[in-house]
Amino acid sequence: MTFIHDRTITNVLNIFILVVCHVGGEEKEAYQGKYLGKINSYHHQVSGDIYAVDEYTFLLTNFNYDGNGADAFFWAGAANRPGPQGFIVPDEYGKTNVLDRYFNKDFTLTLPDNKKITEIKWFAIYDLSSQNTFGDVYIPEEFEPPAAQKISRLTGRSHDVESETIEIIDAKTIKISEFTYNGEGKDTYFWVGLGPQPSSKGIKVPDEYGYLDPLRAYKKEDIILQLPGEWTIFQIDWFSIFDVESKENYGSVIIPDGLNVPPSLVKVVPHTTALPNCFQLHKDLQVSWEIFGPQITIQLAGQVAEDDYMAFGLSAAENKSEMIGSDVAVAYIDGYLGYATDYNITAKAPCGKVLGQYKGVCKDDLVGGIDNNQLHTAVRENGINIITYRRTLISSDPGDKEYPTEGSSYVVWAIGRLNHHKEPMFHDIYPKGNVKLELNRKEKESNCFAFTRSQESFREPWEKSEIFDRTIRTFAATLGPSGGKRGYQGITGMTSTGLAWYINGYLIPELWLRRGLTYAFKVHGGNNPHSAETYHPFIVTDEPHGGFERLSEEAQKKVRVLAGVEFTRRGQPRPTAAGPLCIARHNGRDRRLDDDFPTFKKFNRSLVFSCDEGEPAILEVTPNTTWPDVVYYNSYTHANMGWKIHIVDSYTRDRASHSTEPSALAVIFSCFAAILVAYFLIQ
Question: What is the pTM of this model?
């Protein structure tokens, strides 16, 4: 990932505001900031308009300059008029080169060295050699550039709704400080609209994670919300915590007119569908459909990464959205090819054999069914995957659900990453509540809005854990949550199954083992082979992914198994280190919020631990000279649950890059993990 200076990001992103919006059917220019005026033209065909985006940044639109000046620059100063007493303003690329030709160009310029627009009196296109001004604009006295504006607090009416001062950061962004809501509403959302007071004639605002689910409980939390689609702060009169079912306003605030705020850095990416019905599932995912004759045509449009999948289908239950037992299509694009594959979900685990039968998230044709989805079109445009497929309402596959033509249907959906085999792994984005659609509507209906894209701030993965201690010869291997994008995925760069190995209480630590010494792993990964989700014998191999059982015979031959697997006389692999389950789980907390924890230590404290009775499986390993310098511990049944083991000849290494001795905290955690395991075993 490439990092650039914050101001450079601002320059690039501000160009996104130069789009034309379509709001309420009327075409109008997007808000571009506070207008300063037209550039006064003197020489070299200089012309254009200039706006103040914020206290540091100008926006130039339709700017022209013939490029024939000998030594011309963007120039600003605090003297009464343009002259040699000024300073160069870097161009739109942050450079201070002599200006080239411009023709009807739109771009932003940021004042250098944290200088503010209020500190200058003019901005010019100025030739240093001839000391001629080619064009200029003057900054009015007592000029106030756009800036974030604080308005009043939420006026709470019920359900413990309250907040501190609300801040309008820009034309699309609202910050609510210390927001509280008890979460006990029936069908409650962030809600905005027009009129003197909140009413049912409004629209949903996605929550701080982009979800359109009913609101969870909040307790004095700082949240930042982005108005959906093409909506801006100038097109709403109020913001409310509103219950749609009871039509009750739990708390609200009036948005003042004429707020002098910066334009939004969010890029609006319109998407239209030819199908008559459309439902916004998430800020980044929408489904549209049409029933015609015996078929249903479905289109999934998602603002997803190139290696992401979109999943959508009918719930297993008729009275709620339930993933286990559901019938879904997994849609993605691989290069120039699109897919909308029919899947059957029997467990929250990657597809694998359980006592000879496939269980988990499996393709229909693997479990004896038929792939009834017919791909129609697949395209990726402007960062959006658009995949259209068809299916008969009543399938010949008994494992498929029937699409009803009367009443409402509960559906399930998810967004996640594909693994190295192009298989769907544990989803990162999914709904917690019920999603209900009326598929065969008499009148077409759409609540979809344009996609929006902003520069996401990079969130550092949690600190990598290491166990580098010559005195430790025994390791306790238990299971726990993989910890979102800052956990397993961020540390390894690989996809996750949702579970990962915890070694001595740490999430997938890197281990250092010395050749010639014997080490013991006390394995608590589950010993019930009937379970598709929690049967994880411990193995050590020379490849990073694991999941040895799921590989083809040809692929297995390419893997060197170093520990945890024995082979029968017929050459069939069999795991040897399957112990009783000891697992950490979320204590009622939404796992979609895992990335909010700043460290693994704090995340780990939020979990609850439980262990089945029984002695752990003991896997002894003695690395020798034939072992590679780096091997991997993993699960026999599922891929991507473990990490690296460094095999060394002696316990010495560069202290500049790694600590040679365990920290006091590491020792405490190791002892705690051993005590915890011992405690559960004696219960």
Answer: 0.83
